[in-house]
Input
Amino acid sequence: MDRQAPIGFYRIADFRAIVQEKSLSEINERIRDGSARVVTAEEMPDLVDTLGPAGAVREVDVVTTGTFGAMCSSGVFLNLGHSDPPIKIVKAWLNKVEAYGGVAAVDLFLGATQPSEDKGIEYGGAHVMEDLVAGKQVEVEAEGAGTDCYPQMELETALRLDDFNQATMVNPRNAYQRYNAATNSSDRTLHTYMGTLLPRYGNIHYSGAGVLSPLSNDPHFDCIGVGTRIFLAGARGYVIGPGTQHNPQNNFSTIMVTGDLKNMSTRYLRASTFHNYGPSLYLGIGIPIPVQNEKIAKNTGVRDRDITVAVVDYGIPRRERPSLKIVSYEDLKSGMIDLNGKEVSTSSLSSFHVAREVALTLKEQVKKGEFLLSQAVEPLPRVGSARPMKQTKESPYVGDVMSRDVVTVREDIKVEEAAKLIVSGSFDHLPVVSEEGRLMGIITAWDISKAVASGSASRISEIMTRRVYSARLDEPIELAARTLDTHSISALPVVDRENKVIGMITSNHLSRLLARRR
Amino acid sequence: MKLMLHVAPGIVRYPLIASVILETSALLNIERASIDAVSGEIVLEVPLEKCTEVKEAFERRGVRVVPLEIPVVRDENECVHCGACVSICPTGTFRFEDWRVIADSGRCIQCGACVIGCPHRALKLVMK
Output
């Protein structure tokens, strides 16, 4: 096929000789006179394949991207105006959701993930934002410092979005370039910010728009930078810099953005709650990319299959969660992934349906001349930092606090023998082990009492609990404490890498440790 | 067709399902059963042509039977078509069609996983 040939309704470019570069003002000129040729990032890959990068530069002026998903790191600065008598707000709540008041007298910062004090995580900062954008009135309560210049100590009022002087969204970290997919190796259902993860690799959840992802379409920041005008939940917004944890070296770039809440739409700003996790904000962000040269054209030709992420195991509650497999967004979007020989069902948490709508809406706005592109003042930094936390106070490990003088038994001993061992030992629990010392089950004083009361069992194999929770030597005690709490139990056998019992940790150990700290 | 059986404590020990199968020769599939000290809830998949017969057989044995015609409903204003309900449903009630989430309510067994899994609180079980 002739690579220069026009396809479909894309008209032949003006007869400029071998166009390789276009200036932004040239593109904006076309947007103004309504002649700009705009496609979405979903339509672009086929054009780049057919026309080649040079042809795509000639035929396309702007590629619009879009994403719509949970963006926890979001919030809004609200200025309430001054009351009479004036108040210097120390603490404030909007519909019982606390907003940070430590910025001047009547400026507040409301974070998306802050839960409310009456409804908990079912209503949070994100819900206040959605209610404000929907035109609803919110109840404001504030406590003041009480100073000579700001004597008021307390106030209550009810405000709508229009009543605030400013309602300026400032989101520290949005629009992740891509995001690792999540699964769960453990034997219980996990409720995470990656949604419900079923036990034993029961499903895989992913997030991100793949082919439409703004930063995946400009991975080297040829266009996106400080000052880039964007579509932010229906309003005009701007990139104000790299987002927190911006990590372009590993293709996990993020952006910090701002925009006027008063111009946003609930179509693209939606509150959510992740069960047993907390509130979050679903936000629609679209970035137009001017196709100025072949490199940019090539980058916007990215497809789902070119963008890969790791499938990580949330069953391991540590910072370094094991990565099980590298997959592409094409694999994830197929609905099924092979994980260790098992077909595992995948689904998304972000909405590709709305991401597409963002990209299409932005496309229409650019085509109609309503949205001009801006020149970045500076590109985003090509090196970022997403280091782990420096922890100066080491948390003890299970191995530091456990008892090593644990008595274990074999499953064929009699109930009476087990009873004697519990009475003479220091724990109410007896781990049951195999010949090699591997953990098989557990028996408690309560199990024995029940067996004696009913007079039915003679061997502990008949009454032991086989589904036994355990702790690892090198596990921080916080994790052991959470295991005890989650399952309402009071002791955990401690095992080594071969599942051999080497100790015991109990809620008594943990409470003693806490008592010493105070 | 799915039938929800509400079994009173007095008859929960009786082999209700076995006896109904023997009487009707219907190929029943137990999709969900939760039985505790005070009551029992069982969801059965029943071939359409045997539905009335099976329903009546259970009712004669003192079981309250509710056909699950629309077991789960969605608030279209809240749904953003994210897909958080898709892979967690044990019976495949939800699927994507051109990136819109489509529900095949007939598959639902009212386990409730999607209700708590939906970040937008768009799903509700219709309880009868």
Chain A has three domains: 67-72+169-379, 81-164, 398-517.
